[in-house]
Design brief:
The chain is mostly helical. The chain contains five helices and no strands. The protein has helices spanning about 1-30, 35-45, 55-60, 65, 80-90. The chain is globular, with a radius of gyration of 14 Å.
Length: about 130
């Protein structure tokens, strides 16, 4: 049973990694981090499995904001553990600023392959 749970987690994390950044950027614009409400709304609109929202929070919240969340007991992963699991299942790596997708970079790059700017992130493999 653990194998199936791990496969499901991997599949869901990949969905979060491929869909959530675009939706957040489209709905809320450029930002280094987003709010828990913005992330939850995007997850709901995308019809992603809410049982895995802890990974969305780890991707797009600061460590301080993540620590202040009141997550349900089954999802009590630490910030570091959630981020490490996210990195394990995707090719996306956090930048020096700690965020996975640099929407608010000073170069004007969005992280979505906007005309060859290099994507605005640290080469994590997602040029969207």
């Amino acid at each position: 049973m653990a194998i199936f749970a791990d496969l499901k987690r991997k599949r869901e994390i990949k969905k979060y990694a491929s869909k959530l950044p675009r939706r957040l950027y489209r709905d809320y614009g450029a930002s280094t981090f987003f709010t828990p409400g913005q992330i939850a709304t995007a997850v709901r609109k995308l019809k992603l499995d809410p049982a895995f929202i802890v990974y969305g929070y780890a991707m797009f919240l600061s460590e301080e904001a993540f620590a202040s969340l009141q997550l349900p007991t089954p999802n009590q992963l630490s910030y570091e553990d959630a981020r490490a699991t996210f990195v394990k299942y995707t090719s996306v790596k956090p930048s020096a600023t700690g965020n996975f997708y640099n929407f608010g970079g000073t170069s004007g790059a969005s992280g979505f392959g906007d005309g060859g700017h290099g994507g605005g992130h640290d080469g994590g493999g997602h040029g969207f």
